[in-house]
Queue: 2 jobs
Job 1
Amino acid sequence: MNSVGEGCTELKREYDQCFNRWFAEKFLKGDRSADPCSELFHKYHTCVQKAIKEKDIPVEGVEFMGANREKADS
Amino acid sequence: MKMMKGAHAYSRARARTEGGNATDVGDVLAELQDYRLCQRGSSGLVMMGKYFFSETDIKSAWDQVLTAFWQRYPNPYSTHVLTEDVLFREVTPDNLLLSRRLLTKTNRLPRWAERVFPGNLSRSVYVIEDSVVDLGNRSLTTLTWNINHAKVMRVVERCVFAGEQDRPVWTRLTREAWISSGVFGLSRPIQEFGLARFRSNQVKAMKGLEHALSNLQKASAVCPGDSAEKHKNLNSASKTQKPQQYI
């Protein structure tokens, strides 16, 4: 699956692989050891945030689980 | 968002199918209501909308459904989903997994809408999906909504995937959606369109999830008659699932 940032897809893939493995093998089994994916996420995240700014995607200031509390227009 | 539901009561009907597939998705009977959204945006619009509710049983264990949930894109039914990104993720001190994903989807409109809203064609729809995984009570709650084109139509969808201790091979999916449009004079056809597209997307979403689930099942199956070498990368009779990675 592609990232919204064209140059970020490979970083996304690496992060996704790490997350999926951690999720199934650690998180779902109640293993609370540290998340091994944070570095990968950081690289990927930096790339995506840049693309989001360039494309002017309005994700700023959107409250978590906040859809029901948002104003009607955008 | 304040909502006044319609005066009439509604009854829920659920159906469940059982069969040989890895994931059998029960038939969905949706209840529709008109609702008035008593909220004024800054431009003074009063939103009118449609409410959608459904319950479905998925014949897969909750763990598997969740693992597949993160991996459902791309799939043969999701050609309208162009990009998927994780923007945020956190495990809270009480062991909830919070995530935010950004999706871009094509903005497929019926012809009449293309004539009325020519500017809308150029931009995809940006959708945010926020989710909370609660391992303790075996639930995944998601909230998905579009962050652009919202004045024309806003769709907010809330899903709960719940595992039940007494039914370990099933997962109950409860889905609600609020479809609203603030465009004066056109809100009804827009809502109707929105609802039709939502239902069509819902069918695709379930098929996509089934697809991801059956890939997971294949990945963990031990094929009879294969050499021991081929089994190296597959799980041997262990209970863990190795997630199938999409290219």
Job 2
Amino acid sequence: MPPPAAPKSGDALFASVERVNAELFTLTYGAIVRQLLTDLEEVEEVNKQLDQMGYNIGTRLVDEFLAKSNVSRCADFKETADVIAKLGFKMFLGVTATVTNWDAEGTSCSFVLEDNPLVDFVELPDTCQGLQYCNVLSGVIRGALEMVSMKTEVTWVRDMLRGDDAYEMRVKLTKQVPEEYPYKDDD
Amino acid sequence: MIVCVAVVGHQNNPLYLQSFTEADDALKLHHVVHCSLDVIGERVNNPKRNAPALNETFLGLLYPTENYKVYGYLTNTKVKFIMVTTDLDVKDADARNFFRKFHAAYVDAVSNPFHVPGKKIASRSFGARVSTIVKSFGSGTTA
């Protein structure tokens, strides 16, 4: 049996997956958000929908990520966060995030993105000031982590579309759900 | 120095108009821009040269009025950029350069998913970029 391949670095991962034109991706996402705004009309509803869409993407994405990247089991949440920031974001968005602001228990951290391909060319009009334009990203992280038994809450702290200098999302691990087996052991 | 830039849509509807001098002249500048649209229409319908140039975007000096010069640029979607300047000598290369940068800024503004094509350009960063491009226009000519 051939020895298992070593886990790849972020750049190698990014080079090995199929890529799509960045402008096409940005314009497609922009069109999705615009259409949601036209259909739902309420900014809060659109935020929820984006989060739900992200959740659905995340649950499927995590399998592809683990298959392509070959990372070993993470020992704790800190390692998980590092893997998401360096490998996950790099593989799917082509940018790396930095992990900062760990709290005392190690269950809550921030991902800071300087560069975000979803928001190129975007300027929020005055009528949509409550819109969390990148909410799909928070859904993706929540969905992916839930598939590996971690329940999290993700909120946006800083948003460049609102005038801040970077994108910061706060991820808080609420519960580590142990594996549940559908049958009882003692039967 | 540039006194006014304008973006006019393909149905000759104004999409963006920014003047860089005192507000009194604003109406006169609007009028100048409006008249230049006629000149563009003429140029487009009656090409002067027998062999049309490959790059038909830069229309060049449209017409000189008493103290202004008006330059035009046409994109392939029939969107027109007009630039009104008070400079006495404007190098062709400078004007082309200006319009190239202006075109890039326009494309980025229009790629905003919240921009409705055909409506006025409401992007603040477009305004800021245009101001920067306008400011750097004059400095290129001074030796």
